[in-house]
């Protein structure tokens, strides 16, 4: 399982949950992995230590993606310290709930900064460094295809913006042999959305499989898209949602 040997990957928000699973999965596939964190340095370095214990190499980068320059600096540091970049995984994001009337301007700005602006700026910074076979993979949401109830206006808006952006990226970067894709998770058991949380039963009931997924399910999809199997997949979304959007 060394399909990514010689590749360099950057995973934003890689200190926990889905991001940590992605970082570790790409490393097991042979990639050298950089991962960003905001405040949880101990968790980020724990992920890196696990990667290195398995014989891999990891770089930990502090990056507050609510700041306009953070994504660009993370890409630059990855290229400078690891020698290049082949795979960008835009994973960092907010999981937000609440009715339209209660969304504050500050909350709106934070979500748009991380879920949309940082994705754009990271891709913009990464594109000049990506060669033939380069990958830009963004983590979206099952709300891209279905919004089953109220209180998801901010989440649905922010993640849906990735669809148009990714299609445009695919067209612009395709002639260089670079793909752009989205992985749309359904209910995934993480500390942000635990399988024993208040809304867990309701979320399970909306899936065809009747259960939560695991972070490793999303990581497996990312590894597929990043590897040889994903070379002819671009400009589209892959739903890993247990049938949430069926």
TrEMBL record:
InterPro entries: NAD(P)-bd_dom_sf, SDR_fam
GO MF entries: oxidoreductase activity
Keywords linked to the UniProt accession: Oxidoreductase
Family: Belongs to the short-chain dehydrogenases/reductases (SDR) family.
Descriptive protein name: NAD(P)-dependent dehydrogenase, short-chain alcohol dehydrogenase family
Source organism of this protein record: Streptacidiphilus jiangxiensis
């Amino acid at each position: 399982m060394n399909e990514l040997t010689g590749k360099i990957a950057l995973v934003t928000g890689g200190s926990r949950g889905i991001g940590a699973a992605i970082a570790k999965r790409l490393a097991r596939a042979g990639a050298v992995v950089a991962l960003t964190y905001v405040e949880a340095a101990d968790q980020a370095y724990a992920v890196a230590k696990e990667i290195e214990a398995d014989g891999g190499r990891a770089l930990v980068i502090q990056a507050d993606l609510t700041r306009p320059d953070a994504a660009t600096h993370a890409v630059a540091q990855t290229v400078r310290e690891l020698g290049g970049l082949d795979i960008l995984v835009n994973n960092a994001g907010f999981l937000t709930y609440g009715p339209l009337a209660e969304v504050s301007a500050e909350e709106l700005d934070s979500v748009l900064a991380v879920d949309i602006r940082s994705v754009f700026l990271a891709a913009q910074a990464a594109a000049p460094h990506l060669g033939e076979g380069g990958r830009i993979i963004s983590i979206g949401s099952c709300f891209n295809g279905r919004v089953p109830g109220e209180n998801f206006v901010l989440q649905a808006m922010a993640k849906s913006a990735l669809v148009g952006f990714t299609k445009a990226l695919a067209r612009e970067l395709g002639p260089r042999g670079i793909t752009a894709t989205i992985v749309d998770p359904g209910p995934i058991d993480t500390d942000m959305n635990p399988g024993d949380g208040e809304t867990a039963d309701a979320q399970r009931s909306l899936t065809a499989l009747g259960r939560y997924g695991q972070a490793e399910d999303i990581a497996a999809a990312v590894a597929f898209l990043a590897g040889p199997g994903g070379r002819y997949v671009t400009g589209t979304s892959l739903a890993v949602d247990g049938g949430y959007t069926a």
